[in-house]
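In the design runs reported in the main text, the only information available to the sequence generator was the tokenized backbone. The following block is the verbatim input for one such run; it is reproduced so that readers can re-run the procedure and compare outputs position by position.
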């Protein structure tokens, strides 16, 4: 078997995508269909694509005006020319300080050990420079781009050295704020390269104003980062901010601030795994819920990339709170650069090389299908990425049947290392299954036990985190780019005929009559996949319904992402689809002869995606004419639910454990 490096594989994938686009252009010329850029395509009011009976068009119906509540409230610091005095303490004032993101320090708790002054801070319009001494820290809230100009600094498990590129950091209030810590201790004589890095970023009228910064061993450059993600997490802290940019430095805070801090135990475990890193290393992260598995996996990923200077694979097996994709999707990702932010800042499958739609947020609902998808993704890893170290992120199900699933995962991925986060396996508490300790101790992996995270990270419940990640996904437009100005209810959908060219599938939908299939799909979140081969189907009422069983391999299926079935037009036999997947990618797969598969599981559509906030109704319709949603406050019983309001969930996976794991 021919082995290639992860970077070479990523290059090959990029080349393949390029060839797909070339084939698309050739096919367009042959069919005499105009090919437009993605931007122009989306802006066109009426769009059609016809290929072998498959039609894809944009609905050109009326679109309601955008709700003003979605207006982005952030403004750039560079838009203001006003000078501000900066309060450093009760008695000390720094003069001539422009465009500082400063908080009133009166009777507040210390957050950053760095203290700003006219010598160590230079604000030059769009960019602010900071000079730090060894071990000084800066905690920042918001979105920003930064780079090290001289010296070094640690951030999110990485050691940042002088670089030519800015790196984007997302530090919202929903997660502990990352800490930038200066690591350089020796003040070097300023070289021409350091001076050049600074002067290249300075406006002409600031020439010569940087000399005091050269007295510090570490110099950072920060600038505002506007991505459109700001409205998803409005600022919740009541800081006394003089003016607002996309970020604010937290010197002191009027209330406790959650800061990302790792213990010596965590640092030791990360360092041991990194030192033991090899091409065949597979590290599984496991533990109970809210133990900090995702945070640890992110820190370990960044440390491995920073140390090896090579790509690392990330096997995302948590369908409820995935790291690199939307909920309900299992993915295999390859990353060559660190990630600085929570999952919803990079959860659009941009780094995915293979993904499969699971359709549920927990393996409890379909454990057999869950294991089959893992096997399929692992086969792809062995064929295409063998020799690339891999991190495996698992669910928090460590009790009962979850222990057996974890044992099966350890075998499938051929784990070499296991990091368990939780209470001691020798003295388990009530939240840890007694079978977990023996399982890990009998495994052939190197097991490392560490305590759960001490930093409070539960600013969001699991359900809220899924909703945030789902909204971030559907409002994403490109890497590090979102559009919350236009609600999904005001977005023009694609109109897709549900003919035999489009395959429909209902997961866990036993007993749904054919005449109700479209009603079951309407207003739901579905998986958008492509099928390279031929999937077993049966045709009924003009629809092609997948008839595959759990034993059908997934090797020829690849999930592109999620979509919302906004409406069903039975007369025209079409579905109205909303999806952030670029239309050029969908068209390229169609031209390559692949079929489109829409799979409906049990993923919930966030209320914010269906209702832009108008108290009178939705898109100009009064509430009495709006399907699926109601503002009626009439309730039955003490639960506060209307009779029949809750969806009926049927568990069909209650069988012998041996049967559930049988391939």
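Verbatim output:
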């Amino acid at each position: 078997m021919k082995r290639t490096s992860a970077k070479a594989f990523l290059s090959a994938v990029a080349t393949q995508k390029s060839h797909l686009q070339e084939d698309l252009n050739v096919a367009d010329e042959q069919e005499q269909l105009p090919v437009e850029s993605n931007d122009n395509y989306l802006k066109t009011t009426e769009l059609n694509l016809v290929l072998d009976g498959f039609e894809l068009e944009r609905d050109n119906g009326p679109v309601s005006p955008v709700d003003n509540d979605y207006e982005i409230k952030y403004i750039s610091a560079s838009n203001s020319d006003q000078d501000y005095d900066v309060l450093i303490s009760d008695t000390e004032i720094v003069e001539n300080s422009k465009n500082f993101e400063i908080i009133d320090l009166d009777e507040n708790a210390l957050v950053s050990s760095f203290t700003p002054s006219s010598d160590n801070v230079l604000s030059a319009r769009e960019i602010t420079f900071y000079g730090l001494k060894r071990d000084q820290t800066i905690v920042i809230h918001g979105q920003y781009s930064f780079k090290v100009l001289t010296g070094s600094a640690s951030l999110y498990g990485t050691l940042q050295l002088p670089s030519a590129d800015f790196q984007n950091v997302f530090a919202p209030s929903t997660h502990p704020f990352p800490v930038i810590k200066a690591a350089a201790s020796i003040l070097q004589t300023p070289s021409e390269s350091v001076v050049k890095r600074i002067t290249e970023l300075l406006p002409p009228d600031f020439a010569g104003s940087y000399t005091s910064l050269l007295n510090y061993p570490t110099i950072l450059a920060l600038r505002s980062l506007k991505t459109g993600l700001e409205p998803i997490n409005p600022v919740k802290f009541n800081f006394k901010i003089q003016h607002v940019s996309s970020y604010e430095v937290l010197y002191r805070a009027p209330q406790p601030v959650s800061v990302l801090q790792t213990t010596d135990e965590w640092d030791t475990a990360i360092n041991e795994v990194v030192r033991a890193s090899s091409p065949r290393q597979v590290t599984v992260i496991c533990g109970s819920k809210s133990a900090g598995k995702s945070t640890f996996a992110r820190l370990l990923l960044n440390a491995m990339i920073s140390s090896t200077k090579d790509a690392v694979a990330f096997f995302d097996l948590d369908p409820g709170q995935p790291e690199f994709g939307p909920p309900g999707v299992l993915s295999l990702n390859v990353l060559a650069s660190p990630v600085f932010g929570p999952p919803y800042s990079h959860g659009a499958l941009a780094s995915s090389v293979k993904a499969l739609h699971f359709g549920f947020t927990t393996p409890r609902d379909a454990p057999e299908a869950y294991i089959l998808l893992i096997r399929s993704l692992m086969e792809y890893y062995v064929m295409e990425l063998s020799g690339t170290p891999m991190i495996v992120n698992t669910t928090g199900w460590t009790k009962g049947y979850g222990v057996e699933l974890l044992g099966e995962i350890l075998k499938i991925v051929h784990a070499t290392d296991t990091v368990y986060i939780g209470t001691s396996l020798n003295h388990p508490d009530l939240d840890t299954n007694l079978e977990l300790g023996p399982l890990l101790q009998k495994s052939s992996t190197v097991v490392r036990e560490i305590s759960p995270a001490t930093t409070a990270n539960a600013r969001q419940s699991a359900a809220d985190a899924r909703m945030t990640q789902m909204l971030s996904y559907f409002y994403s437009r490109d890497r590090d780019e979102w559009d919350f100005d236009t609600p999904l209810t005001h977005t023009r959908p694609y109109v897709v005929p549900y003919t035999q060219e489009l395959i429909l599938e209902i997961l866990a939908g036993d007993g749904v009559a054919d005449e109700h299939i479209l009603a079951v799909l309407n207003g739901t979140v579905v998986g958008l996949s492509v099928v390279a081969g031929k999937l077993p189907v049966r045709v009924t009422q003009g629809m092609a319904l997948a008839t595959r069983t759990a034993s059908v391999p997934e090797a020829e299926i690849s999930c592109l992402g999620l979509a919302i079935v906004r409406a069903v037009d039975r007369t025209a036999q079409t579905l109205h689809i909303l999806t952030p997947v670029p239309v050029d990618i969908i068209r390229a797969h169609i031209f390559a002869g692949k079929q489109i598969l829409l799979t409906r599981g049990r993923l919930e559509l966030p209320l914010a995606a269906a209702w832009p906030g108008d108290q009178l109704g939705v898109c100009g319709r009064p509430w009495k004419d709006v399907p699926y949603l109601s503002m009626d406050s009439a309730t039955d019983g003490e639960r506060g639910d209307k009779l029949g309001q809750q969806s009926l969930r049927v568990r069909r996976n209650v069988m012998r454990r041996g049967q559930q794991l049988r391939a």
